[in-house]
Amino acid sequence: MSVKVLVVDDSALIRSVLTKVLNNDAGIKVVGSAIDPIDARKKIKELNPDVLTLDIEMPNMNGLEFLDKLMRLRPMPVVMVSTLTQKGAEETLLALELGAVDFVAKPNANLTTGLDEFGAEVCQKVHAAAKSSARSRGMRAKVPQIAITSASAPQGSLIAIGASTGGVEAIRAVLIKMPKDCPPIVITQHMPVGFTERFATRLNDLCDIEVCEAQDRMVLEVGHAYIAKGGVHLRVEKSSGQLKCRLEDSDEVSGHKPSVDVLFKSVAKNVSNKAIGVILTGMGRDGAIGLKEMQQAGAFTIGQSEISSLVYGMPKVAFEEGAVSEQADIDNVASRIAMATTKLK
Fold first, then answer.
1. In a designed cystine with 246, which of 235, 281, 285, 301 is the match (CB 3.0 to 4.6 A)?
2. Active-site residue flag, 164
């Protein structure tokens, strides 16, 4: 059965482009379009779509305001269609916090380049959204955030986290609980250029630990988290007795750049049994091979549980490959990390 999509955008051109590229996928059917949230509200009732694509800047009601009301009153999978600007990045991150499943960047204004890539990406993310647990997530009560008081670990320890779809909220749920004495944390979240800096800044504002976008040769410090920069791979290197970030502008790995596999493999090589690997929500299989290498090198590995994953893809593949030492609900991942750090040698 085809995934029914309602396209919501005040631009007639973007509505037309989205309708065309989505209908080109045999497994997707655009059942209608809306010019603003008021129109969308009526058509959601009439057409009962499986997935919404939603613009942020629209007349009559801001897309974020509409999304907030939608997730409280009628939770459903939403894919944001965002502009690649600083303001667009900030608003998109807010949309993901409000409950949107994922986002795609709008094609360039003249539509002369990247349309095929845009079409493939938006179709892929609509399919993932349709299979996600967005409805149940919207109806679940929020779990109180209780900070962990200590995460004692031997010198040279490291925590590595990988995520994709749904990872913005999952990473926040983990980092917001981490104490200031936790080992350095390196993170690869599938995200394009221009979004990772805002993501790091947002996390830094919310967390007790320091969070930043990773820079080449940056020394990894206790109580700090480093987010992989969009469009380049993040590796960990050991030199002069110190662990450091290394950025690598090479080909995609496992279909992504930055790739979780690249990060995890470097951690397996350079940190081995003093590492903890964590694979969170996301579609696809990126990270499974690298997490297996970490485990084989002596690292303790954690996979997000199916019930708490927005998209149980990456954690599922890693679990099926035998790369996961234990599974945990997202609200327990931070405490499991802290417990594991006390057992590192």
1. 235
2. yes
| Distance from C-alpha of 85 to C-alpha of 328, rounded to nearest angstrom | 35
* Catalytic position from the list 286, 305, 308, 309: 286
Are residue 44 and residue 99 in the same domain, yes or no?
Answer: yes
Instruction: Tell me whether strands 233-239 and 275-279 are parallel, antiparallel or unpaired.
Output: unpaired
d(CA 182, CA 149): 10
Query: What is the percent of the chain with per-residue pLDDT over 70, rounded to a whole number?
Result: 92
Does 167 lie in the same domain as 131?
no
pLDDT confidence of 75, banded at 50, 70, 90? Answer: very high
* Gap between the terminal Cα atoms of the chain: 52
With respect to residue 259, please indicate whether it lies within any of the assigned structural domains: yes
Q: Is 150 contained in some domain?
A: no
Q: What is the token pair recorded at 206? A: 């919310």
At residue 136 the predicted structure's pLDDT band, cuts being 50, 70 and 90, is: very low
Q: Is residue 147 part of a domain?
A: no
Q: In angstroms, rounded to a whole number, what is the distance separating the alpha carbons of residues 13 and 80?
A: 16
Based on the structure, what is the number of domains in the chain?
2
Reported as a single tens digit per residue, the pLDDT across 142-166 is: 444 555 666 678 889 999 999 999 9
Q: Which of the residues 164, 266, 305, 309 is marked catalytic? A: 164
Read off the CATH number of the domain in which 212 is found: 3.40.50.180
CATH assignment of the domain containing 116: 3.40.50.2300
Query: Which among 190, 224, 233, 256 is annotated as catalytic?
Result: 190
* Degrees to nearest 5, angle at CA 279 with 317 and 318: 20
Residue 224 among the catalytic residues: no
Quickly state the pLDDT bin for 194 (edges 50, 70, 90): confident
Please state, in angstroms and rounded to a whole number, the distance separating the CA atoms of residues 112 and 109. Answer: 8
Domain interval for residue 127: 3-139
Q: Which residue has the tokens 């979240």?
A: 189
Is the peptide bond between 315 and the residue preceding it cis, with omega within 30 degrees of 0? Answer: no
Asked whether the predicted pLDDT for residue 173 surpasses 50, the reply is yes
Strand arrangement, sheet containing 102-105: 28-34, 3-8, 51-54, 78-82, 102-105
Is 286 known to be catalytic?
Answer: yes
**Is residue 216 domain-shared with residue 130, that is, in the same domain?**
no
